[in-house]
C-alpha cells in the first residue's frame, strides 16, 4: 500500500452584495488597494502559498461596505447594512529556513516604518499583527478569529469583545470622530499609523468613533492598582485627560488612575478609570510641603467633544457657501495632557507711543484752546517696541514754555483776567424852564435835573440897554458831575414892565 499525500484545504472566500451594497473579499480588497491586475496577482500568490484563510463579506443596501480578509488558519466575517463592517486577522508568514528571507524582509520594513520592537519580533517569529476590527453604521457586525469582534447599532451603540485583554464592553460612542481629521489631521493620522504598526486591532475603530462612556468587564486580562485585577472599568475618551493627583507632606494620592496594564497592552483603554481604586504613593516625609497641592481640576485637563461639531459646521458651511472653508481657529485635542484648548498662533506687535512735540513760544495764536493742546507727531510708523515719551511741553497762552521734570505734570499758569470796564451811560439832555427877568434887572434861574446837585444862581445887577434890556450873563451852576460852564444869553427876551429877560440853558457833562 502506498502512502497518499493530502493537500491542505483550499481557503474559502465569499462576498455577497445585495440591493446596491459593496462586499469585498481578499481578492476584491487587494484589487481595491493595489489595482485590479496587481491585486489579482497578489491574491493568487498568497493563495498558492497557503497564506489565506476563510473570509465572508455581506453588504445590503447602498452605502453599505463589508470587508473581510483572513490569514492561513484563521477566519473573518463582516456584515453591513448602511455603514462599514471590517474584519481582518493576523497574517502568518512562511516558517522554516525557506520562509526566513520573507520574515527578515517584513521585519526590516516594519522597523524602517517605526514599528515598536514587539511588532518586529512578532514578524521574525512568523506572524504579522495585521488584524483590524471596526463597526459603524445602521447595523454592522465584524468578527476576527484572532482579535475578537464588534457590533454597532444606529451608529451610537457599540459592543466589543477583545481576546487580547479578555474583555467585553458596551459603549455610547461619538460617530463623528472621523471629522477630527479636519481639525487636527496630523495628530489623527499619527495615531492611526502608530496603532496599525503597534498591533492595535482597534486603530481604525478609534478613527471612526470615540467613546462618550464605556463600561467594560475583564476576566483576568487587566491589572489595576496595587497589582490587583481590574474587573470593572468605566472609561471615556472625553472628560478627564489625566487622573487627579493630590500631594501633601511628600505623599501622593492618585484619584481615577488609568488601568495599569494599559501601558503594555494596546487593547486596554489608557484613559482614567472612574471605577478604579485610588493609588497611594508613600514617600519620605517632607515637612516643607505643609500646604496640600491638587492637580488635574482645571479646565485644561478636561476634553470636550465639541471639535467634531465644529468640524461638521465648518464642512456644512463650506458646502453651502460654495467654498472649501478655512481651518478652524482652534481645536480641542488630546495630544497634550495639560492643554485642552489650542489657539491658532497670533502675533501681537507692540505699538510705539507717539512723540509729543513742544509748542513754539514765539508763535502767537488767537485760540487759547489750540495753544494749550500738545502737538502730536503721527508720522512715525507703528509696530515697534513701545517707547513712551520722556518729556513734553505744555504752554498756556501768554506764558513762556517751561520744560517740566520727567515724570511730573507741568505747572499751569492761567492767563490774566482782563480789566473790567463798566458800560458807559449818557443821560438825556435836559432843558431848564426859561428865566424870568423884569424891570431894570434881568434874572436867570436854572433848575438841575433829578439826581444832580441842585444850585440856584442869581446874577448880579446888570444894566439894561435899549428899550428892551439885554439879558444878564452869569456863570453856570453844576451838579455833582464834571463842570462845563454854560452861558445864558438874552435876545428877544420878555419881561414884565418893559424889561427883557435873558434866556438860560444849562449843559451837563457826563
End-to-end span in angstroms? 168 Å
Note the overall shape. Answer: extended
Average pLDDT rating: 74
Number of beta strands: 24
Computed structural class: alpha+beta
Helix content: 10-25%
Rg over CA atoms? 56 Å
Which residue ranges are poorly predicted, with pLDDT under 50 across at least 5 consecutive positions? 1-7, 324-349, 359-371, 376-386, 436-448, 450-510
The number of helical segments is: 9
Report the sheet with the most strands, covering strand number, pairing sense and barrel closure: 10 strands, mixed
Proportion of residues in β-strands: 15-25%
Question: What descriptors fit this protein?
Answer:
10-stranded mixed β-sheet, 510 residues, alpha+beta, 4-stranded antiparallel β-sheet, disordered C terminus, single chain
Structure description:
Strand 14 and strand 15 (251-255) form a beta hairpin. The model is unreliable at 1-7, 324-349, 359-371, 376-386, 436-448 and 450-510 (pLDDT under 50). The radius of gyration is 56 Å and the shape is extended. The protein is 17% helix and 25% strand. The protein has 510 residues and is an alpha+beta fold. The protein has helices at residues 26-34, 36-48, 100-112, 117-124, 180-183, 185-198, 203-208, 306-321, 368-371; strands at residues 13-18, 22-24, 54-69, 75-88, 91-92, 127-128, 132-144, 148-153, 157-162, 167-174, 210-218, 232-235, 239-240, 244-248, 251-255, 279-281, 293-295, 302-303, 330-332, 341-343, 355-357, 375-377, 437-438, 495-496. It is built from nine helices and 24 strands.
Amino acid at each position: 500500500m502506498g502512502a497518499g499525500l493530502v493537500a491542505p484545504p483550499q481557503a474559502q472566500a465569499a462576498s455577497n452584495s445585495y440591493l446596491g451594497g459593496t462586499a469585498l473579499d481578499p481578492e476584491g480588497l487587494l484589487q481595491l488597494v493595489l489595482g485590479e491586475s496587481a491585486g489579482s496577482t497578489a491574491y493568487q500568490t498568497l493563495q498558492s502559498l497557503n497564506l489565506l484563510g476563510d473570509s465572508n463579506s455581506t453588504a445590503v443596501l447602498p452605502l453599505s461596505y463589508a470587508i473581510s480578509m483572513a490569514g492561513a488558519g484563521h477566519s473573518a466575517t463582516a456584515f453591513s447594512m448602511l455603514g462599514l463592517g471590517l474584519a481582518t486577522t493576523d497574517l502568518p508568514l512562511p516558517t522554516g529556513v525557506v520562509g526566513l528571507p520573507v520574515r527578515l524582509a517584513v521585519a526590516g520594513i516594519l522597523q524602517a516604518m517605526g514599528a515598536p520592537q514587539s511588532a518586529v519580533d512578532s514578524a521574525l517569529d512568523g506572524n504579522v499583527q495585521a488584524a483590524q476590527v471596526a463597526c459603524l453604521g445602521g447595523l454592522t457586525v465584524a468578527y476576527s478569529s484572532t482579535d475578537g469582534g464588534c457590533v454597532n447599532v444606529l451608529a451610537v451603540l457599540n459592543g466589543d469583545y477583545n481576546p487580547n485583554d479578555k474583555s467585553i464592553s458596551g459603549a455610547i460612542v461619538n460617530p463623528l470622530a472621523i471629522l477630527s481629521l479636519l481639525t487636527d489631521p496630523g495628530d489623527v493620522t499619527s495615531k492611526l499609523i502608530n496603532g496599525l504598526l503597534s498591533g492595535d486591532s482597534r486603530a481604525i475603530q478609534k478613527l471612526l468613533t470615540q467613546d462618550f462612556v464605556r463600561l467594560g468587564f475583564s476576566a483576568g486580562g487587566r491589572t489595576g492598582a496595587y497589582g490587583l485585577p481590574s474587573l470593572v472599568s468605566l472609561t471615556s475618551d472625553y472628560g478627564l485627560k489625566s487622573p487627579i493627583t493630590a500631594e501633601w507632606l511628600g505623599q501622593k494620592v492618585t484619584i481615577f488612575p488609568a488601568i495599569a496594564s494599559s501601558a503594555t497592552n494596546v487593547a486596554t483603554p489608557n484613559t482614567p478609570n472612574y471605577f478604579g481604586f485610588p493609588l497611594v504613593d508613600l514617600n519620605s516625609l517632607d515637612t516643607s510641603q505643609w500646604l496640600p497641592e491638587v492637580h488635574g481640576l482645571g479646565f485644561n485637563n478636561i476634553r470636550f467633544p465639541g471639535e467634531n461639531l465644529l468640524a461638521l459646521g465648518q464642512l456644512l458651511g463650506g458646502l453651502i457657501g460654495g467654498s472649501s472653508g478655512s481651518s478652524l481657529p482652534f481645536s480641542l485635542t488630546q495630544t497634550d495632557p495639560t492643554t485642552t484648548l489650542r489657539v491658532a498662533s497670533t502675533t501681537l506687535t507692540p505699538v510705539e507711543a507717539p512723540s509729543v512735540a513742544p509748542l513754539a513760544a514765539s508763535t502767537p495764536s488767537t485760540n487759547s484752546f489750540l495753544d494749550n493742546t500738545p502737538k502730536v507727531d503721527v508720522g512715525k510708523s507703528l509696530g515697534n517696541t513701545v517707547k513712551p515719551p520722556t518729556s513734553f511741553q505744555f504752554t498756556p497762552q501768554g506764558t513762556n514754555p517751561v520744560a517740566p521734570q520727567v515724570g511730573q505734570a507741568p505747572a499751569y499758569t492761567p492767563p490774566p483776567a482782563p480789566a473790567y470796564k463798566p458800560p458807559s451811560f449818557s443821560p438825556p439832555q435836559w432843558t431848564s424852564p426859561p428865566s424870568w427877568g423884569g424891570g431894570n434887572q434881568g434874572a436867570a434861574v436854572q433848575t438841575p435835573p433829578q439826581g444832580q446837585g441842585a444850585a440856584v444862581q442869581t446874577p448880579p445887577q446888570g444894566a439894561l440897554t435899549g428899550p428892551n434890556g439885554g439879558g444878564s450873563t452869569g456863570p453856570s451852576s453844576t451838579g455833582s458831575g464834571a463842570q462845563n460852564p454854560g452861558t445864558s444869553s438874552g435876545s428877544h427876551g420878555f419881561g414884565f414892565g418893559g424889561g427883557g429877560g435873558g434866556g438860560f440853558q444849562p449843559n451837563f457833562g457826563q
